[in-house]
């Protein structure tokens, strides 16, 4: 029975991979309706994720690796013949700037939002039409100029209730009338609870997160569950390199900082001798948790003092992190001639 279940989830995952690959063939970046349709942001009600300082720190931490950003993906097609061009210095500079802009598009971060509120708005209940039909009627406004988030969608139940459609009903109606590439009417099995843990254990973190961006909106509770579970799994395994230079790296760091689950990330940075990035995460922590600002002040060139003070103050109960911090302190205190292996 377990073998049959594993075959089903593997088959569904392979199908999702093929669907996802066909979407990537278009060389497009999944953009959520919220980002495209929300309009100008209201600074008073906008989540902290959109704060300018937060965005600046997250983009800095992502570290653009052009080889990884523009790497060849396994898309079930033959690779094209490489093209070589002779360019002047001016043409080369234009091509480089174009590549930088394209890389920024590819690394556009999916937003972190609170879960959307359930819709429970009833217009009227007409008992006279009870029993008239056994089917529900869905009415969708397809007028020009509407978007998926402000389009009027109402539903008439069999008991005569005329109400606003739920988010799940809205998503299906929008996908029927205005289909989005790669998105399915039914939730793929890989995201269902009985299969998700098994897919997550395979370590396909970027695929899972990309697929979630295509299938869900960022305020969908299931999207939030899938992404947060993936981030937590990465923190548990310490496999942060998998998401470096991807659009999901910044949201992952934001989530771990918000949940104050930074010990494994700090260990990863210290073992990689990336002290400046630990400082950036500490600065991010101060923005998200203004009541937990490190007592030590940041002094350029003295980054380790800030890092040591912060870890000793808030993460002293993490023995693995404290041991890594001690080893790093011993490493930087040695003369360079002894530190080089």
Structural features, described:
- By secondary structure, this protein is mainly alpha-helical.
- Helices cover 51% and strands 5% of the residues.
- The chain is built from 15 helices and 4 strands.
- A hairpin with a 4-residue loop joins strand 3 and strand 4.
- The longest helix has 23 residues, at 2-24.
- The radius of gyration is 24 Å and the shape is globular.
Derived structural class = mainly alpha
**How many strand elements?**
4
Please state the CA-atom Rg, rounded to the nearest Å.
24 Å
Rounded average pLDDT: 85
Strand content: under 5%
- Total helix count? 15
Largest pleated sheet: 4 strands, antiparallel
Helices, strands, pairings?
Layout: H1 2-24, H2 33-37, H3 52-62, H4 66-69, H5 89-106, E1 122-125, E2 137-140, E3 153-156, E4 161-164, H6 167-177, H7 193-201, H8 205-215, H9 221-237, H10 249-258, H11 263-271, H12 275-288, H13 303-314, H14 319-333, H15 336-339
Antiparallel strand pairs: 1-4, 2-3, 3-4
Helix pairs in contact: 3-10, 3-12, 8-9, 9-10, 10-12, 11-14, 12-13, 13-14
Output the keywords.
mainly alpha; four-stranded antiparallel sheet; 341 residues; 4 strands; 51% helix
Give the gist of this structure.
By secondary structure, this protein is mainly alpha-helical.
């Amino acid at each position: 029975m377990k073998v049959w279940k594993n075959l089903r989830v593997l088959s569904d995952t392979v199908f999702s991979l093929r669907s996802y690959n066909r979407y990537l063939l278009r060389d497009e970046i999944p953009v959520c309706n919220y980002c495209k349709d929300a309009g100008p942001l209201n600074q008073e009600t906008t989540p902290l994720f959109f704060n300018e300082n937060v965005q600046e720190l997250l983009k800095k931490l992502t570290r653009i690796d052009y080889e990884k950003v523009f790497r060849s993906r396994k898309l079930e097609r033959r690779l094209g013949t490489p093209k070589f061009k002779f360019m002047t210095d001016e043409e080369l500079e234009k091509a480089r700037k174009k590549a930088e802009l394209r890389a920024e598009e590819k690394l556009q971060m999916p937003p972190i939002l609170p879960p959307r509120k359930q819709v429970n708005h009833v217009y009227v209940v007409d008992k006279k039409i009870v029993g008239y039909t056994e089917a529900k009627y869905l009415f969708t406004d397809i007028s020009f100029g509407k978007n998926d988030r402000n389009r009027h969608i109402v539903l008439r139940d069999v008991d005569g209730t005329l109400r606003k459609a739920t988010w799940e009903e809205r998503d299906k109606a929008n996908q029927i009338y205005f289909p989005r590439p790669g998105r399915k009417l039914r939730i793929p099995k890989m995201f269902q609870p009985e299969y998700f843990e098994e897919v997550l254990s395979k370590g396909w973190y970027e695929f899972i997160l990309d697929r979630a961006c295509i299938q869900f909106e960022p305020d969908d509770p299931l999207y939030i569950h899938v992404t947060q579970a993936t981030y937590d799994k990465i923190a548990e395994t310490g496999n942060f390199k998998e998401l470096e230079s991807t659009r999901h790296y910044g949201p992952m760091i934001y989530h771990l900082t918000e949940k104050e689950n930074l010990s494994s990330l700090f260990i990863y940075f210290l073992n990689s001798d990336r002290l400046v990035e630990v400082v950036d995460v500490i600065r991010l922590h101060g923005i998200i948790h203004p009541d937990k600002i490190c007592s030590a002040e940041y002094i350029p060139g003295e980054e380790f003092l800030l890092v040591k003070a912060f870890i000793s103050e808030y993460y002293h109960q993490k023995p693995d992190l404290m041991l890594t911090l001690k080893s790093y302190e011993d490493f930087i205190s040695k003369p360079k001639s002894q530190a080089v292996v």
